[in-house]
Amino acid sequence: MKIEGDNNKISLNSQYLLDVLTYISGDKVLFLMNDKVSPAVIKPMKDESYVYVIMPLKV
Per-residue pLDDT tens for 29-50? Predict the structure, then answer.
């Protein structure tokens, strides 16, 4: 795991996260987030045609 930028925390629906990881092929994914209220973007490292967006949960 390689982390760049600030150390942020975000709450996501675990089922949505498992869904995206089920459909992504390959062993590396890119997980992008700005802050705890902005959507998280998940996509495979080698396939730019697939992008998955997850809205964070308010906790």
Answer: 999 988 889 999 999 988 888 8
